[in-house]
Amino acid sequence: MAAPASTSASAARRGLPRRLSVNTAMTVVLCLVTAGVVALLLWILGYVAGQGLKYLGPMFLTHTPPGDPSQAGGGFANGIVGSLVIVGIATGLSVPVGIAAAVHMVEYRGRLARACGFLTDVLIGLPSIVTGAFVYALWVAHFGFSGLAGAVALGLIMLPLVIRATAEVLRLVPVELREASLALGVSRARTVMSIVLPTARSGIVTGVMLAVARAMGETAPLLLTALGNDLFLETNPTRRMSTLSLQIFSNAITGFATAQARAWAGTLTLVVIVLVLSVGARLISRRGIVRSAR
Amino acid sequence: MTPDTTAAARIDVVNLTAFYHGQPAVADVDLVIEPRQVTALIGPSGSGKSTLLRCMNGLHLTVPDASLTGQVLLDDADIYAKGSNPVEIRQRVGMVFQRATPFPTMSVRDNVLAGLHLGRRLGRGPHDDVAEQALTKAGLWQEVKDRLKAPAASLSGGQQQRMCIARALAVEPEVLLMDEPCAHLDPISTLTIEDLIREIKETYTVVIVTHNMQQAARVADTTAFLTMSAVGEPGRLVEVGPTERIFSSPRRQTTEDYISGKIG
To answer: Residues in domain ABC transporter (chain B) (predicted)?
Structure first.
């Protein structure tokens, strides 16, 4: 009994200096990598903020761009409104469908669910310009450019993201919770609506916000659908519309310093809008965690 | 609405075999569960005790690729007959699980009333009286009466488990199935729940799965012993009888080996 114990103890002691140094080395490597990632993100944010703040102001948020892009002044008011309207419609289209599909995939399974899971993975990898071209061929070619067509394209891009994020969160809800509800004589559908979805709510909101952030920044599919409108503030989504991403693009490629200053202010606005929406959604979903009948 | 909510029901398990993925987990079980008694199912891990229990309220069939043959009669009506409504069956046969499963988005009171609210048997509203009744039956009212609106997860483990019992009783079932309800509890909470089981058997039929033979000896009127011939083989019912007789003079050698600690 004593002999093997002492050999294993001495073996452990022999390896100890080496294990300690490996432990220290790995800790240093991990800290450096993490610090590098944080530094990179701060650099991007700081650079965007530094460039954007040079021009961002009340004028930028309330005016449309000047007719001549080389002129100074003006702003992206039409792009801000357009982004909110188009992404808002895209969210309204994709989120209910996406959550329903995820519920079917996780809660009911079956062949259709497996097909849906596979297609979701395929669609996530689809280049967004392809989605834009698809909507162009099916819709724009017949009815013309419109904010609505852009919203459909963005909705198609958001859909697989919403499905996958929701499905992953639903899989995290313990089976025991579902069984506890079923065992109370609660129907399957009620269990999903009143137990599973509320439990997964904050995770679903996070997933939806990631999809919204992605849609906010999409430009390529909008070139083929919403087209853009730098001339005036358009609030009717059945007509061609501008978005922040489109205006950043069109102003950045002009080569005029004035237009590029507007583009930088636009990028900062985009970042801030996404940030505000994410934080707002997080706060709302957290506030609802414990819901009482009173 | 459940028919006649005051009557404890009797369960007859007739020639039941339950499968997962086509493999039998428990086979050829014939067992009578008498009303207003506590019946304990004991046996080693893998002997199919929990599966057998989950067949008694139809929960077994909610698992993908699970199936069964044979009958489970609830007051002489086969719960697996065509036209039988699984939701109604589960309202009549309640269940408490090994781990306390508070619904995390709900308060203590809403947890207790969840079965009634979600089963559409009770309109919206506070219904504090109903919650109080159920919590009193579960011996938890004094401890939580000032915390009804607190999140259910803020209760201790033992309190959560008793809250789950209150939640099951609020639906006014005729039978209460308990799947190792004390497995994750400390000895004091365990004794509290055992007292509670002895009390509720006055009005309900109770079936309890337990790994703890002292617990079976303490609470059960009837004990059924299941085991399997080898790992991977389906569990079978070896012996069933009054608890005292099973523990003092078991008729089968495997039963004696198990309760004396030679196997399992």
So the answer is: 11-253
